[in-house]
Amino acid sequence: MKSHEILTLLMKKGAKIHCPESIEIGPEVDPSNIKGQGLTIYPGCRIYGQDTIILEGVELGAEGPVTVRNCFIGKGVRLKSGTFEGSCFLDGASIGPGGQVRTGCLLEEGARGAHTVALKQTILFPFVTLGSLINFCDCLMAGGTDQKNHSEVGSSYIHFNFTPNQDKATPSLLGDVPKGVMINQPPIFLGGQGGIVGPVRIAYGVVVAAGTIVRKDILEENKMLLGSSVLTRTVPFHQGLYTNIVRIVELNSLYIANLLALRRWYRDIRALFFREGTLEAKLLKGALKVLDSAISERITRLGDVARRMPQSVELYRKVKGIPKGEDLTIIRKLHFHQNWDRIKAVFDQWREEQGDKGMRERFLKIIEHQIQTRGQDYLGVIKGLGHQESALGTTWLQGIVDSVMGEVWKCLPRFGRRRK
Q1: Which domains are present in the chain?
Q2: pTM for the whole thing?
């Protein structure tokens, strides 16, 4: 269909289209995937992509033109202005003016960003809030319980996700999946004018003072990190040396394991809140598509590092003066390179694994009972779980994470067994 024909059809469905002659909808867009009720499209907007889905109550372009391409947009989502591609926005998510959301992003219910926020391969759990002037790619953030008690990223914040070694094996885990999906954890606060040098892990309840650059894991909950002046110094640097390969493998694998647990959560738990054959069910499939692309992205980035290990070993020999023989660093690098296909196979296998079947079935029955009592209100059901009930779900998902990590370390015995 032509753009004006789709717009006419949407207006008949109840959509408010401001200055329709300024709006373009690509011929590949399926109008049956757009609900007109409560939809508002302001001048200058463009909608493209055969995968695009838009549910009711969505507002596009209230503060400037919006371009949407192959996005999955839930009820009541507000995209003020900017470009949005290959991402999923669940009910009530919002991005302010000047947003740039690239492929692989998943913003869950009520997640929001103010003006000039740039995201790519980013996952925000319910109610996570980003300030203004933020670049926050390649990370997952959880924590908080509602719109008043939520994880927060202050304005002018950046997640540094590209290394001097020219790689992006840098995903940071702020919170986690097994606890985070229960929407009952203390919020994480990252003060403005700061940043994270990925990959790192940050525990729930952590407060990072404004102006602080986080370079190391903060694994103890309910702690405050205060910034301090950094002594300027120079140290030798050799691109591709990779002296910290164990940490890179560990944190990337742990991130992938958490994404695999989140994928299982969507397939088994969130699926209970969508009726098959509805447009809402297509939204769920869109979220799963984004998660699959996020998992593939992280596997690709870690694989890129694995393939660099032979060259890294040669550089390491030259820098350290080890023309022959092997030390533990050399052994581990070659071990990682030689066993990469086995590690990748572990990740691929766990896309379909369900974890402990007994715990899974018990937790599914709890959710099904809660749906019968509370209706298909996802946030209401999950937040209404008792402590023991949510703990059961967390244990089930943590078992998936631990199993994935255990299989990875089996592929890399020379690394030694690392922490979970």
Answers
A1: 3-225 (2.160.10.10), 245-415 (no CATH)
A2: 0.97
